[in-house]
Amino acid sequence: MVKIVVLGGSFGGLTAALELKRRLAGRAEVTVVSDDDRFVFLPSLPWVIMGWRRPADITLRVSDILSPRGIAFVNEAALAIDPEARRVATAHRQLAYDYLVVSTGPRLAFDEIPGLGPNGHTDCAFTLDHAAKTARAWKAILADPGPVVVGSSQMVSCFGPSYELAFEMDAELRRRKLRHRVPILYLTSEPYVGHMGVGGLGNSRRFFEDEFAEREIKSLVNQAIEEVAPGEIRLKDGTRIPFKFAMIAPPFTGVEAVKPLGNPRGFIAVDQAYRHTKYHNIAVIGVAVAIAPPEPTPVPVGVPKTGFMTIKMAKLAAHSLAAEITGGPAPGPETLSVLCMMDMGQTAALMKASPLLPPRQESYTKKGWWVKGMKAGFERYFLYKMRHGYSQWP
Asked: Most buried by CB count within 10 Å: which residue of 264, 335, 375, 380?
């Protein structure tokens, strides 16, 4: 029986594991390795911060998803991979594999900027635990208002949550009649607002400039952070920004276990089927994949790999691996595109880029109240889909 190990229990890892088991059934022994037994619907973390969702509303147990489908679950962190011996090491075991799927997400590199992060002086929106802490800090601002800074540091490759929170905080402060007491600054490494690490999406630059201006959200672009002190962000150009609440996305790297498979920052080069370029029995999906930026920027930014993109990668990679194992026809390459629904408090925006990087066939940013309903509906749909293991669904 073929042994397949999947590293990661989020969007990519679960989709890949479920698809592999669906396609291979009794031909494969599939094992998922993750140090977290929670599947979290990550796009809703800004709503947790705002108090519009409870953690339980967007969380499922990984073991409850996998066990009924005959997929083993190892609730431990992968510590090392030996691609020559085809083994994954955790703290308590060695797992042999014939095929490996890497969907480990990012390491949040707070340590690259002194004072950044939940153990320093800023908050974060990328994990459920971080979001819960940030929610408490947000409540403190509502009780005792002061300057807010939201944004992204250098080497970030996920900008959406910071934009969402800037809009959502503005909307909530206005609802509470507190907006005049809370200056909001959007601080970013992007060369312009709406760049998003992909050279913009249609008219996104003008869109964000206009929407920020309408709400009196100030922006500061092309910035790298030197360090964060209590109540003050210090930029590399010498500027000092005071704050009472700061939610800053940290630099991303690959996780330590997979770093040896990738480039100096730990991201891994792949072919059109998301196979490692040297070890073809290893598939890599999601944030772990190395994608070169579309253009040089004054301050380095990364290319985002959203949940939408990660699921597309996972399905293609699983199909490719299953075809190799069964001797069936291999899937053809697919154009990687992105579709995002961004909450804006009272309204929302639909953002599309196909392909992901320019030049493109289609690219736009459109505002509409109906997008907010779509986003909430998709949350319910996706949690239902994962709860029941329907990975073949769109």
From this structure: 375
